[in-house]
Design goal:
Radius of gyration: 22 Å
CATH superfamily of the largest domain: Naphthalene 1,2-dioxygenase Alpha Subunit, Chain A, domain 1
Number of domains: 2
CATH architecture of the largest domain: Alpha-Beta Complex
CATH topology of the largest domain: Naphthalene 1,2-dioxygenase Alpha Subunit, Chain A, domain 1
Shape: globular
């Protein structure tokens, strides 16, 4: 699991007037809204006696620990310790790690790492239609989980040959042979464009999508520093659908999938249930396979699996991840778990700026250029 990525931690609708606990990268976080309504993300561990902040409450834009009432603002500073009295001096070490957040596309993102603002990668502009109002689009959101490593889950999302065997709604059994394709790379993404012969649609979508269509284009892009996949299927131009799936590692072998489904046809609310059923049907088909992969995480080297040319979108992604692991950007999950007498946290940008006088210890990072045993 990598630090210094943007991760989706919740839907915007999940965070209201109460604090919300979330887990990512094997660590616990609390989300809450400050007095201006902005979402804040802190380590969930009170530095006093380890209380869980998300089990407290929001008071005047701060989160209050349920154990002794210590209150933390959005920057992570403790601003109230009731037992000290109104004139008591709050210790300088009374602070927790705070992480940059961005609320966009109905999702709450947090940058889990210690890079300063000028070095942080941007969030992708993967949905300009939404940013520009999206009056001609219908958006639906939801979540699911896979019992596998996040890299495995993303590789599945761009796997060009599994649909024939896994997905009954669009995997055309007459198109088993995978045509050659190119992966277009840039600093932040891996893009593939192709075409396929679609199956006839089932259910209510047949009202807008005709039977017996010819080849249709599809576009698939992986975003690297904000682990997401954007798939656009040009179903019957100008009718098109997009699905953006974000992948957040909860544990090394447990992945949170958060999705946005967008369509520019059948825009009435009455079609939403049918659409969501389609999305969850496809996710469940994937889960049947992903929840039983061995090993659940990606093997140490490419030679540990027999990979083909048709796998190169996922392989290129795997190589990018392995390169970051080799640079020391991955959490040593086993070493961190082994030191279970200590509470551990993801290092924050403020911790990098001011590395002294923190109570909680950072997670253990894997040594650069060291492979899994």
């Amino acid at each position: 699991m990598l630090i210094n990525n943007w991760y989706v931690l919740a839907l915007s609708a999940d965070v209201g007037t109460d604090p919300v606990g979330v887990r990512a990268l094997s660590q616990d976080f609390v989300l809450f809204r400050d007095q201006e309504g902005a979402v804040r993300c802190l380590s969930d561990i009170c530095v006093h006696k380890g209380g869980s902040l998300c089990r407290g409450k929001v008071v005047d834009g701060t989160v209050e620990c349920p154990y002794h009432g210590w209150r933390y603002n959005g920057a992570g500073d403790c601003v109230a310790i009731p037992s000290l009295g109104p004139d008591g001096k709050i210790p300088s070490r009374a602070r927790v790690d705070s992480y940059p957040t961005d609320e966009r596309w109905g999702w709450i993102w947090a940058f889990l790492g210690d890079l300063p603002d000028e070095e942080r990668p941007p969030l992708p502009d993967f949905f300009p239609e939404y940013d520009h109002g999206g009056d001609d689009w219908r958006f639906l959101r939801g979540k699911a989980r896979f019992d596998c490593n996040w890299v495995r889950a993303i590789e599945n999302g761009v796997d060009r040959t599994h649909a024939v065997w896994v997905h009954t709604d669009f995997g055309n059994p007459e198109r088993k042979v995978a045509p050659p394709y190119d992966v277009i790379e840039d600093d932040y993404s891996l893009y593939v464009k192709g075409s396929s012969k679609p199956l006839n649609k089932r259910g209510r979508w047949r009202e807008a999508i005709p039977d017996e269509r010819g080849e249709r284009e599809n576009e698939v892009r992986i975003y690297m520093p904000a682990p997401c996949i954007r798939i656009q299927m040009h179903m019957q131009p100008p009718k098109t659908m997009m699905i953006i799936t974000a992948y957040t590692p909860i544990e090394d072998n447990l992945t949170q999938l958060t999705f946005i489904h967008a369509r520019n046809f059948l825009l009435e609310e009455s079609y939403d249930d049918d659409t969501l059923n389609r999305v969850h049907f496809v996710i469940n088909e994937d889960a049947v396979v992903l929840n039983h992969l061995q090993p659940a995480r990606v093997p140490p080297t490419l030679a540990d699996e027999l990979l083909l040319e048709s796998d190169k979108h996922g392989v290129t992604f795997r190589q990018r991840i392995k390169a970051r692991e080799a640079r020391g950007e991955a959490i040593d999950v086993r070493a961190t778990a082994a030191e279970d007498e200590y509470a551990r946290v993801i290092p924050s940008p403020r911790r990098r700026r001011d590395p002294k006088h923190w109570v909680l210890r950072p997670v253990v990072m894997r040594d650069p250029d060291i492979r899994d045993e």
